Structure formats: C-alpha cells, structure tokens
Amino acid sequence: MSSLDWSVNQPKALEVTGLETRFHTQDGTVHAVNGVSFELREGELLGVVGESGSGKSVTMMSLLQLIPIPPGKIAAGSAIFNGRDLIKMNSDEIRGVRGGQIGFIFQDPMTSLNPVLTIGYQLTESLRLHMGMTNEQAHQRAVELLQLVGIPMAESRLSDYPHQFSGGMRQRVMIAIALACSPQLLIADEPTTALDVTIQAQIVDLVKRLRQEIGMSIIWITHDLGVVAGIADRVLVMYGGQIVEEAPVKELYAGPQHPYTLGLLGSLPRLDSNRNDRLLNIEGQPPNLSSAPVSCSFAPRCAYAYDRCREENPQLKPISGEHKIACWWNVKKGEPRYDR
Amino acid sequence: MTADKKVLLRVENLKKHFPIMRGIFRRQVGAVKAVDGLTFDVYEGETLGMVGESGCGKSTAGRTILQLYPITDGSIHFEGRDLAALAPDELRKVRPRMQMIFQDPQACLNPRMTVGSIISEPLDEHSVVSGEKKRERVQELLKLVGLNPNHANRYPHEFSGGQRQRIGIARALALNPKFIVCDEPIAALDVSIQAQVVNLLEDLQAELGLTYLFISHDLSMIRHISDRVAVMYLGKIMELANSHDLYRDPLHPYTQALLSAVPVPDPNLEAKRERIILTGDVPSPANPPSGCVFHTRCPVAVEVCRQAIPEWRELRAEHWVSCHLAE
C-alpha cells in the first residue's frame, strides 16, 4: 500500500477521544495531555510533531497504559481499537494487545534492549507469549524478521547480545521485535532521533518498504518536521498537551494555519532555502503544564494573540475538509475567526 | 569573504590518537585515531562549519585545537603562534582569546554556583577585573545574551535549556575572545529554541567580530550559519568548500550521500528526491580501512580507493576534496 492509496474512506484503525493524562507529583499536578482526540485509518501513517513536553509521547504511551500509575493517571478519554476501549482494559487484557496487535518502537535503541539477554531471546519472547509458537517455530520466524529488517547473517546474529550491534542495527532489532507478531498498528516514538542522518535514511527507507509489504497503520512521533514530510499521510501538531493543528501532510506544509506551526516551519533552516535568510524566532519558552489550560497555551508566545486567546481555550475544529486547527485567529485573512 | 581575508587559525596535519591499553602492564596495543591529519585555515570573522556523523572526530578536533587535549602530531597556529610549542604559562595567556561553547547546557554549568559566579569565573581566573567592575561586567554580559541582568544570583536549575545555553555563551564571551569553538551548541535544544540561540550567535558575531568553528551534525543548520564547511568522516576531512558551492555542487561521494539523506520539510520535494542510501555503519576509528577511509561504504569505490590514500587537492578554486574519483 503506497501513501497515495490512503483515503478518508478507509475504516478506522484507532479512535481516540478526549484523552487526558495527568501526573500527580510532589510539586503539584502536571497536566501532560489535555483532551486529545484523533483517529487513525487503516494503512495510514500519521505523523505526530511537537517539541519536548508537548505531550506527544505521553499520549501514545497512555493508549497502551505504559505510563507509570501512580504518579500518572489517565483522567478521562477513550481509545477504541478493534471495537474495544484500550483505556478500560485491565492489565492482563492490555498485555495481550501490547506487542501483539500493537507494536511499539522506543526512541533510544541503546537503552530499550535488555543488555544481558540475547537478541534471539528478546525477539522470540513475544512470539512464544502471544502467538504460542514453539521454540523451533519462533526461531524460524526470528530469522525471517531479522532478514526483513535487513540485518545480514541473521541466523548467526540471533545469539549475539545488544552491545555487539551498532546503533542503527539495534534500532532495526527494535523494529523487528515490534513487528514480530504482525501488529495491525505500529507506534514509533522518535525512532530515528538518536541516529545519524545516513542511518536515519536507512531506517526511514526500511519503514517505507515494510509499509508496502505488510500494510499496517503507523503512528510516527517525532520533532523533526523534515522526516514527517517524507513519510506521513497526515500530521498532528501538538503543543502544551493539545493538538493545535491537524492536516494532510501536503496541505500542512503548503499552508500551515496555526501560528505555532508557522513559527516551527519558519525556525527551520532548510537545504532548499536561501541561506542568508534570518531564522524566524518563536520568542519565549514552552508552557508550564502545572494547571489545566483555560486559555490558549500558545498565546504568551504568539504574535497574533488577542484578548480572546488569553480568556478562552480554542478547541480543535475543521477549517476546510481534513484540515483542523485550534486557534481563534485567521492567519490567512489576518483577522479573528468570527465564525467560532 | 573578500580577497583580503586574514588567517586567524592555521591547522596543519593535526592528529589526535587516543591509546588503547591492555593487560596488567597497561601496554599500548593500538590507538583510536579520532583525528587523523586535518589541514585547514580559519579566516578572521568567518564561521567555519564542521559537520559529520557521530564518531567522526569533529568534537575531538575542536577540543584539540583549543589544547584541551595534547596533540599527537601536527601544528596549530593561532594568531601566528604555534600553540603546541608554547610553554604552559605562555599558553595560559593565549587561552582567553579562544573559548568554547558546549553541547549540553545542563552538564556544563555547575549546579552549585550562581549564574553570576559561573560567568565571572573566567574573569577571576585571568584576573582582569574585580569588585564593582566585575559585577557590572557580569550584568553587561547577561544583557548581551538576552537574559535579565538581575538574575545573576539565580542557580542554573532555575533556567530553561535555551536560557542555560545563553549562560554558557555569556561565560564564553566574558574575556572578549577572538575565536569560539561551538561544539553542537544547539543539539540539545528544541527546534523553536534552536533558532533563538543561532540568531543570538549570529548577532554576537556581527557585533563583536567573532570567529566561530561551528561543530554540528545538522547539515541544514551548518549551511545556514557557516561561510565555509568542512565535512569530516572517520577523523579526516573529506571535503572543504564555501557553503554555497558545497551544498550546490558536492564533489565527494560521502558529501553527496550525506546531503541526500537530509530530510527537507516539504512533502512534494520529498516525494521526488533521489536518496543515496549508504549501506553499513561507520567503521571503528581504532582500525580504519586501508586507502580511502570511506571506501567500505562508498557507492562508487574502485580498486585504487582500497589501496591508496587519496590526495587532499584543490579541485576547484577554494574547493578542496579528498577523493580519487572526484573531478
């Protein structure tokens, strides 16, 4: 399935509504995710972009109940996957989903593999657990998986330990583990951030190929707007624990409508731009999440902010077709959005 | 850059090898050739970008130039004086002229010192000013990097990442340096904060006439900030040219692959781009390949690349490359 085949009419693979996650710490409550709603269609690659602290990782980890509870707490929301609510599942049920129907790739390939277990063991663990394979079958499948992600001499490398692999190779192993049970949904949390550009290109290439071969839905979390442009069908932009803009990838890059997205794209030096252009600044600091948002969380840094932005928190609403934003200002017309 | 450019720093055949010790007698069994023969000039007032993947030796190069490591071989001439040949107390007198900005603003500031004492430490160390004058200078520096001068009594943890990087910059500027090595100064910062810091560095350069050696793995940022760019791979410079020529017309296969791997934030362009995907990983600098160090991953390597070390030649005007095949 290529990115062009994806369409609005595809059935939903995942539907998240009103997700709220908080962390109750000694220094007070951190409102990490504040009412996030989105859907993912079958075969779609959804890019999730945001800076650190924007809540992009916590959102996805909440779906699989991977946040530590306590101090974390999923205060509200639902996530319908295969007709069942992931948030309401008990720990046995969710364990059946994790690694089985939903695969997860973590950011840091250095720390998310167990250093004292062989790659083969870590790869076959979920196969034996979720698929009930015998050791013999699991071994066979593990070899196939390593070949699939492009690790040479797969057979002999199964008995190697993580430290015997380079960073890029370890990330391939992580991808192989996530793909082991042929998941319907793959969540990749900054899978290339810790890697060099040439290795990043290898991994992005690999994921593109796997998508065509396997045809799963993918959520790709990143702070790199360049990577998303190359692989995503649709993009969510997150800020302060909320989605501020959602659009098909070409529409987002051709005409960003939220001031934050505009600023983010403007602050990037690009290989295809004029070198001497001064970079656009987003003044100020990311928001402090110590209270639930009552106004637009981007307002203190926003060049277009006016009274309403400081009094009311804008909700994510469509402006045209698939394009949604959470903003009181119409950037195109240069006036407030009177229709909201 | 005009024709009358003045060389501020001249690096010739610079080598830095770290010994590998083994056994109970700690005998040297080999060496990690982190920097293995660099030759380049840095002109006054320019920004020389140094780019490469992790482990290519770019940070070691920066630190060796500042004499934070003793050099293994070669020479470093700063303002006409050979740094490696200077006596320790002579070298100490040169040190204020060259400073460093570090990658991790979290780790490079002492959490137990106030911002004021962090910034005034170089002033104390090189006994330039004291008392009221020193306080004034600290406030002046804080203002210069865009921080509130009244925050001198605060501790680093009270600042955000971007602000901490500004403190690091203020400390580097304290002694009015001529030359600053910026070692991945923005790698640990968020995208929107990166632009703030880069703009600040550019403003300071224009205002104070600074010369930067800007080390980064971010090719787009290097292109933005640098006048000339050196591409490093496994301890050697593969290509050196002014920014415009290097990005428009890269001559070395490694530079070409590196540039094609950088994602561009434009979906239409991304869909059309041809990628050169390099296979494999960077070899170990303890045991670099024979001949051209890049031949193991090079898509166009031929027999001569495996045998002979390519010459460092000026293929076009001001455009240096180390490759047998480039033309």
Describe the structure.
- The complex is a heterodimer of chains A (about 350) and B (about 325).
- Chain A has about 350 residues and is an alpha/beta fold.
- In chain A, about 30% of the residues lie in helices and about 25% in strands.
- Chain A is built from eleven helices and 14 strands.
- Helices cover about 30% and strands about 25% of the residues of chain B.
- Chain B contains eleven helices and twelve strands.
- In chain B, β7, α6 and β8 (about 210-215) form a beta-alpha-beta unit.
Summarize the structure.
The complex is a heterodimer of chains A (340) and B (327). With 340 residues, chain A is of the alpha/beta class. Chain A has 11 helices and 14 strands.
Characteristic terms for this protein:
heterodimer; A: 340 residues; alpha/beta; 14 strands; B: 327 residues; eight-stranded mixed β-sheet; 25% strand
Q: What is the element layout, followed by pairings?
A:
The complex is a heterodimer of chains A (340) and B (327).
Chain A: E1 12-25, E2 28-41, E3 45-49, H1 56-63, E4 72-81, E5 84-85, H2 91-97, E6 102-105, H3 119-131, H4 135-148, H5 154-157, H6 167-179, E7 185-189, H7 197-214, E8 217-222, H8 225-231, E9 234-239, E10 242-248, H9 249-254, H10 259-266, H11 307-311, E11 317-320, E12 323-325, E13 329-330, E14 335-336
Parallel strand pairs in A: 3-8, 3-9, 6-7, 7-8
Antiparallel strand pairs in A: 1-2, 1-4, 4-5, 9-10, 10-12, 11-12, 13-14
Helix pairs in contact in A: 3-4, 4-6
Chain B: E1 7-22, E2 27-43, E3 47-51, H1 58-65, E4 73-78, E5 81-82, H2 88-94, E6 98-101, H3 115-125, H4 131-144, H5 161-173, E7 179-183, H6 191-208, E8 211-216, H7 219-225, E9 228-233, E10 236-242, H8 243-248, H9 253-261, H10 267-272, H11 303-307, E11 313-316, E12 319-321
